[in-house]
UniProtKB/TrEMBL annotation:
SUPFAM superfamilies: DhaL-like (SSF101473). The gene is dhaL. Transmembrane segments: none annotated. NCBIfam families: dha_L_ycgS. Residues 7-207 form the DhaL domain. This is Dihydroxyacetone kinase subunit DhaL. It comes from Streptantibioticus rubrisoli.
Length: 211
């Protein structure tokens, strides 16, 4: 398994940025069904800005890179997802402290506290048809895998599968938070855009571990 250092987080950012770019029109299409058709462009703008900013600055710890990406998302993405993802990554980065490399368990604890901060900021919980519906299953799958003796690679692969399943499972849910909640019953039958982008971000972690 690779080290979880600043190079690992940079690899994640680069894989996440290209996944978001490739899936941008799909994310916007999902958001056009139950939102305002901007999720793909919001995410693309945010990750492009974050990638450019991180390339300019020599951040030497994984925590610093995550914090930096979080700050960029908050300042460059209008819309709900920017501050929510930004808060997640800033909190996770802060939790990693200034260590040059961290353990899989430390990464997992940091991601858990980041996801908890999304729930806090969004006043949302699992089952509301939001990004939390793929983020919580991902974190839990990672926790379970690590506590069963898996290493980083296997734990992130499990997180990726759980996030994909979580995103797909938002289809029959009635939205209780965000713009989709304005639709009430009409939000049923559509996959949540944020849960979908969250699954892409988790998949990028799994790919960063494979590289
Ligand atoms: P906006 O809705 O402002 O246009 P985006 O389209 O970029 O923002 O993001 C919408 C996504 O943000 C939703 O699909 C949902 O997953 C997520 N989201 C919205 N509100 C909340 C919330 N209160 N808690 C968690 N996630 C939320
Ligand atoms: Mg939107
Ligand atoms: Mg919007």
């Amino acid at each position: 398994d690779p080290a979880i250092d600043s190079a690992f987080v940079r690899r994640w950012l680069s894989l996440a940025t290209s996944a978001i770019e490739h899936k941008s029109s799909w994310l916007t299409e999902l958001d056009s069904a139950i939102g305002d058709a901007d999720h793909g462009t919001n995410m693309q703008r945010g990750f492009a800005a974050a990638s450019a900013a991180v390339e300019r600055e020599p951040s030497n710890t994984p925590g610093e890179v995550l914090t930096h990406v979080g700050r960029q998302l908050i300042s460059s993405v209008g819309g709900a997802a920017g501050p929510l993802y930004g808060t997640l990554l800033r909190r996770a980065g802060k939790a990693l402290g200034d260590q040059p490399a961290v353990t899989p368990e430390e990464l997992c604890v940091a991601l858990r506290s980041g996801v908890d901060s999304v729930a806090q900021l969004g006043r949302s919980e699992r089952g509301d048809k939001t990004m939390l519906d793929s983020l919580y299953p991902a974190v839990e799958a990672m926790e379970f895998a690590l506590s069963s003796g898996s290493g980083l690679l296997a734990a992130l692969a499990a997180a990726r599968t759980a996030a994909d399943e979580g995103a797909a499972a938002t289809v029959p849910i009635l939205a209780r938070r965000g713009r989709a909640s304005y639709l009430g019953e009409r939000s049923i039958g559509h996959q949540d855009p944020g849960a979908t982008s969250a699954a892409l971000l988790i998949a990028a972690f799994a790919e960063a571990a494979e590289a």
